[in-house]
Amino acid sequence: MIAPFVAAPGNRNESPLLREALPEVMRISREVGLDLQDTIVSLDGA
Q1: Any residues with CB less than 8 A from the CB of 25 and at least 6 apart, and which?
Q2: Secondary element (H or E) of residue 21
């Protein structure tokens, strides 16, 4: 699981946080050599 930390107020929807977190997820995956092509992402909380 790759999960960068993005701070936000407790009453804020997580959906807008994806824009900030996704580049970090991509950077981390490249650094550790993961290929995320055809990866399924669950956005149930958004």
Answers
A1: 2, 4
A2: helix 17-32
